[in-house]
Amino acid sequence: MAEYGSLLSDLSENITNEDLEQLKSACKEDIPEDQSNNITSSKEWFSYLEKNDKLAQDNLSYIEHIFEISRRPDLLTRVIEYRTTVLKISEDDEIDTKLTRIPSAKKYKDIIRQPSEDEIIKLAPPPKKV
């Protein structure tokens, strides 16, 4: 899938060496230290994640999480745009998918979804001071 390669290339161009160290640190539980030290570029980092089933063209949730905790909303936004435009997976579908992976979480699906306009409690404006 050419779009997936373009996404990784685009992300790689926007990850500095300093960023890479931060990203590797954010996933230190999933990458042993000796292997982490061998990763010297963002392309190698993506490759490692793919080989270890943390990243695939139709599975981006791991890097979304890493970009989120690493405070890189710019990278996260690009991944979400790819997911919604190329894969046609909406935020609601993603929540459904994540919840089906955790059997005990299914009961929380209604809590997690966004309320509709009818469900939102509207407050009256504060009284004006006289």
UniProtKB/TrEMBL annotation:
Keywords: Apoptosis, Cytoplasm, Phosphoprotein, Sugar transport, Transport. Its main location: cytoplasm. One of its GO terms (biological process) is regulation of apoptotic process. CDD domains: DED_PEA15 (cd08338). InterPro entries: DEATH-like_dom_sf (IPR011029), DED_dom (IPR001875), PEA15_DED (IPR029546). It comes from the Eukaryota. One of its GO terms (cellular component) is cytoplasm. Pfam families: DED. Residues 3-81 form the DED domain. The keyword Cytoplasm applies. It is found in: Cytoplasm. This is Astrocytic phosphoprotein PEA-15.
